[in-house]
Fold:
Amino acid sequence: MVHGASASRNQPAGLATRPGGDRPAPGGRDRWWRFFFWFSRASEARRSSLETEVAMHARHLAAVILPLLNMRCRNQKEPLIPPNPLGGLKMQSPHRTHAIVAARALAFAVAVVGTSVTSPVVVNAQAPPAASEAAREGTCEQAQELFPDNNPGPGSLKEIAVPEPTNLGTYVRSRAAAIALGKALFWDMQVGSDGVQACASCHFRGGADPRSVNQVNPGGQDNPDPTIDLGGPNYHLKASDFPLHKLADPTDRTSTILRSLDDVVSSQGVLLRRFVRAVPGAARDETIVVPDPVFNIRGINTRRAEPRNTPTVINAAFTLQNFWDRRAENVFNGVSVHGAGDYAARVLRADGVGGITPVVVRIENASLASQAVGPPLSNREMGSIGRTFKDVGKRLASARALRMQKVADDDSTLAPFVNHGEYPRGLDQTYREMIERAFQPAWWRSDLIVRVAPNGALAFVPHPNRPLRDDEYTMLEHNFSLFFGLSIQLYEMTLISDDAPIDRFFDGYQGALTAKERRGLAIFTSETADTACFGCHSGAELTDNSRRILDGAVVDGVRQPAEWAERMFNGECEVVAYDQGIYNIGVRPTEEDLGGGSNDPFGNPLSFIKLLTLPASAIPSWELLTYPIPNIANPPFAIGERTVTDGTFKVPSLRNLQLTAPYFHNGGQSTIRQVVEFYNRGGDFREHNVQNIDFEIGKLNLTPQQIDELVAFLGRPLTDLRVVRQSAPFDHPQLFVPNGHAMSRGRPKVNDEGVAQDLLLEVPEVGRRGGRLPSGFLEQGDDDDGDD
Structure:
C-alpha cells in the first residue's frame, strides 16, 4: 500500500520519506532485521519432508539470532554492516533459501556477538515489532525503513492524462459518436428492465446518489441478516440515524457503543421480477413479479436496495478497477464484468456479410466498460432474473434513444440529435443508428442472424425475412454488451472534474485556498500532523487506486517502480502481502463483507496478491495465471504466503466529497466531519479486524481545531463548481428517479401488478450552461414519505 509517501521498495537513494515520519537510525542491522523478520514468518508450503524440517529449524534460528543481533548492535558505537544475506542466492525454493540464510545468519551472529552478551535473552519467536510509544497509534517500528514510501501528494488534475483503452480503433469508428451513444444509454430510463431505472438513477448528483428514502439494505454482501434495522423498507433516513456505529465519545472507539447497525445505506434499484421476453422497441421487458422475502411491506414488494453504497462516476476513469471490491476488471472482455476470469466470454465478429466468428476480446484500461455491463443484468439494480444483454439489445436496438425524456437544445453532447418533432422528447436517432455510426461494421453488419439454443449454443443462419423469434437475434443485438460498455466508458472518460480550487492552487494561484483550508491541506499531507491521509488518497487523483500511481508515478523527478501488490504490516505489525489501493480500514467487522477477498462467480480471486500466492489449481482461469501483475517484492511472493484481502475496499477519490454523501462502502457516515472523526479515533473495528486492517489505521489525536481545518480542506477546495452547476461536461437529459413508494396508513399503495406504487423525483434536463443541482443527501423534507 502506498502509505504516506509510496510503498515502493528498492527505490533510488535520497527519496523523501513520508512527511511526519521518522527514518530509523542508520545501521546494517536494519537490512538483517528485515530479512530475519520476513523469513521467520515465511511460507511452510511443503516441497519435501527434509526441506520442510530444515526450513522450520531455519526459522527458529532466525528467531533466536534476531534479538542477539539487535542487542549487539545497540551496544556498538558504530553501525554494524553485515554482508547481504541473500547474496548469490537463486530464489528457487523458499525452504532452501530460508535454511541457507539462517545458516549465514548464525555464522555471522556468532562472529559478531561472541561472548559479549552477558544478560539473559528472552526470545519470543511470535513477537512482532512493537509500535513506537512516542508515535501516534497506527505505527510499526521501522515501517518506513523496511517498506519505504514515496507517493505523490495532491496536485492539479489538469496535469494528469486519463488512461486510454487499448486497441480502441479495432472497435470504435467515431469517438464523438460513441460518446453521444454512451451518454444517451447512461441517462435513458428505457435501459432498466422496468423501463424506469437508468444507470443515472443512482448517479445524478455529483456522480453519486443523494436520495434518503428506501435506501437501506439489511447488511453487507456476505451478511445473512435479512432484517433492516433502520425502519424497514421505504424508511426515510434522518440525520439522527448517523453514524450507523455511534459512540458515546466520537474521539474514543472504546467508549460506550450507543448504536451499531449492520445495515448499509445504498441505492434503491428494481422490484424483484423474473424475465419473460423482450419485445423490440417496447417500453419495458415482459416480466413476472417474484415475492421478495426482504424488500416488502406487509407482503407487498418494494424496490430493492444494494448491499454497498454507490460511488461517484466522476473521475472514475483514473482508477485501475471499479466497484468497491474492484471486481470490474481493468481488461474488458466485451461481455461481462469479469475480464479474463470469464473465460467463456465471446463477442461475434463478421467475416464479410456471410460469416460470423465468436472471438475473444481483451481491451485494457477499460474497467469502466466492465463496470457498465454489470447493473443492467442485476436483479437488484436494473435487471430481472434471467435477463441477458442480448435481450437488452433486442428491445433497445429499434427504440428511439431517450424517447420519454427531455433533452436540452444546448446539451454539450446530444444537441445535434435532439428530437424537435410533434412529441419533443429524446433524440431523433434509434440505438441501432447510433451504434452503426459509432462502431466498426465488423461488429454489427451481417446478413446472418444468431439463433440461441436452450443450452446456449449458437447457430448462424440466414435472416428468415420475418420477425425474429425470442431465441433469434441480429448480430448487433447479440453484441450489445460490447457497444454498451465501450460507449459508456468513453462518455464517463469525459466526466473529469479538474477545475476545483485545489487544482487552481497547484496551478499557481495561492489565493484559491483560504488560510484555514491551507492548514487543512498541511494536516492532510502530514506536514503538521501525522495523519498519513495522502498515503492512500494520493496524487492529484486523491486515490492510490489510480492506474498512474500503481504503474509508478513520478515523484521529485524520479519515476517510482510499478507495484500493484506488496508486503506491509497489518494491525498487529506482522508482515503480510496484499494489493495496493484496496484496504481494510475497520468500518465494519470483516466477516460482514469480504470485499476484495471475494471470488468472482467462476471461482477466481478478485485480488492480485491471491493470483500471485495461490497454487495454480485454485485459479480456474489459466489466463489470469499469466496476467502481468507489476510487483517488486524482494524476495518474490511465494505460493502459500500470508495475504490480507478480506474486508478490503477500494480507496475512493476525495474529489467533490461534499456532494457525494453518505460515505464509506456501507454509507455509514453522513458528513465529512463524521468521516474525519472516524479516522481520528482509529476506525470503529480496529481490534476486531486487527489481522486484516491497514496498520496505519489508529488514533490520530487531532485537536478540535485540526479536525475543523481538515474538514474545511475536504469540502470546498476539492469541489469543482462545474459539477455543482451541472455545466458541461456534467450537463444531462431529464430523468425521473424512483424515490420510495406512496403509502396509505402504513401500507404501500399498489399498482395494477400488486406491487408498491413508485414516487418519482424529477431531475430536470440541463444544457451546457448548467442548472440547479438536485437536493443533497438528507436535504429532502421529512414529509416526503408519500403517506396520506
